[in-house]
Amino acid sequence: MATKITAPFFATTACKAYKEDKESGRVIWNLTIPVCELPKDLPLDPNARLADEKRRTVKSMLATLAKEPEEFIFYNNGILIVAESILVKGHGAGGGFDIELFLVSPDEEEEEKFIGNGIVNGGHTYTAIMKARDNHDKLQSRSSKLKLNPGAGKNDYSELEKACVQIFVLVNIKEEEISNISRYRNTSESVEEFSLKNLAGEWDIIQQYLPPECDPYVAFREGEAKQYDVTDLVRRLACINNKVYPWRGADGSPKNPSATFTTYGTLIRNWRKDDFREIVPLLKDVLYLEECLRSEYDQQKGLSKLNGVEKKSYLFITGKQFNHTLPIPFVFPILAAFRVFIKDGKWEKPVEQLWDEMGTTLLNNLLTSYKNEGRGNPAFFGRSASTWSNLLLVPMQLKLTE
């Protein structure tokens, strides 16, 4: 079941800034809150990215909260919250308002069904305030002043009570509207496209087929401290996607997936789930092929002498370690050659057999081509159409001999 959250707090001002004319329409409340009154543990479920306290913007906000707390409300854009409902009660002669927010947050098993309520924009503001609050609370409980970063200035937050923040609360917002609100509100600091698509549920099909061993290493939104993100998976799936990059086009020539190397940002922006639905179940297989490929590279003598190759440990998406860090043009064109044996989203032969029959030959052909034509420049090599097209000859010849 979904978790219901009640968040009570005090606001110095509160006004209904907007209400639609139609019955039960959307409402926007504008609140001014002392930062020390801001509720802790508000959910970030609707936010496109997780907040990262190491960002420069967070450090800047912390400095303001410590040195110029009364200026914070003027310098900051505030926090936007989507709530199930809101209760506002006047505080009487003393002034101010008692506020209660009612939020619904999805449990783990329900995350795919709905996004939930919480902070839609301003997650980094919230993170900065909570960090300052933590330091302030410690300061109040000790006789000596604590510094956020000893030696970096007098950031002791002793006057944090002077800081206020604006809170905008949206009520009666439909579930399908939340991702668009987050997309358009998160513009002061650009949100990665893959995070926005995650909010819209675009990656659910990839999460469904993601091998369990990959989960600790793949992020689906910003702020997750992982070595890879879903972009890396989409690039590999694109390599074997005959719908998007047919190895034999209408004119008989291939459409090579060089965009996986040169313009993969566009690849993510143009992502359409239906274009990949057939190929995503092969995610485990393409990762297996790359593991085999990287193992084969590790056995090559003198590999680290090639420009672009480094003899240093490389952690792959699956968690397996390899001895060389390779430029992507040494990997993706070989993966793309295997798509010759994919038809209607299925392998024409077991993938293990395909590797045994073609893997070493493809690697040797690529290295020979790189030494002869690559100019010692991996970027040039990866952009060359012949790099991709020539490797297709290996699986095509194998087909002819069967």
List the helices and strands in order: EEEHHEEEEHEHHHEEHHHHHEEHEEHHHH
Our measurement of the CA-to-CA distance between the termini, rounded to an integer number of angstroms, reads 56 Å
Low-confidence sequence ranges: 143-153
Helix content: 25-40%
Q: What portion of residues belong to β-strands? A: 15-25%
Structural class: alpha+beta
Radius of gyration: 27 Å
| Largest sheet descriptor | 5 strands, mixed
Choose one word for the global shape: elongated
Tally the structural domains. Answer: 2
Labels describing this entry:
about 400 residues, single chain, alpha+beta, 16 helices, 2 domains, five-stranded mixed β-sheet, 14 strands, three-stranded antiparallel β-sheet, about 15% strand, about 35% helix
How would you explain this protein's 3D organization?
The chain contains 16 helices and 14 strands. The chain has helices at 56-67, 72-75, 123-141, 175-185, 193-199, 204-209, 230-239, 259-262, 264-269, 273-276, 283-298, 332-337, 351-373, 378-383, 385-391, 393-400, and strands at residues 3-11, 13-19, 27-34, 79-83, 85-90, 97-105, 118-121, 164-171, 218-219, 228-229, 314-315, 321-322, 342-343, 346-347. α11 crosses α13. The protein is elongated. Mean pLDDT is 88; it is low at 143-153. The strands form 5 sheets. It has a 5-stranded mixed beta sheet. Strands 1-6-5 form a 3-stranded antiparallel beta sheet, with no helix packed on it.
